[in-house]
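hey so u asked for the seq, here:
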Amino acid sequence: VQLQASGGGLVQSGGSLRLACTASGFSLDYRAIGWFRQAPGKEREGVSCISGVGSSTYYADSVKGRFTISRDDAKNTAYLQMNSLKPEDTAVYYCATDIVEVPDPLRVCTVIAGLYPYWGQGTLVTVSS
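ran it, structure tokens below
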């Protein structure tokens, strides 16, 4: 069971990046996926999540309107499209997923880190001013 986060890099303020979270050894189908970030000296922050069937999404206020989460179960991959990036978005970004498969369109997702047992290794996003 492995999650691989990729797509980070150095970008200027106002730029865009698309992060990918790819699973190997298991299927992401019907599993909620969360994106988290941790900046130097700060606590980990829940950025966004998407439910097992994609019917529910959540965005932290700090990224609402700029970031978009999506999933492509055929590719066993989730994405975080980040637009209008700001220096304060600089952090290591992690993706995580649940053990439980929930094919319920009414189920909402959460960015409570403790509810996600599987984590990727993180990808660094640096936004220069």
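The chain has a mean pLDDT of 95. The two ends are 37 Å apart (CA to CA).
lmk if thats what u needed
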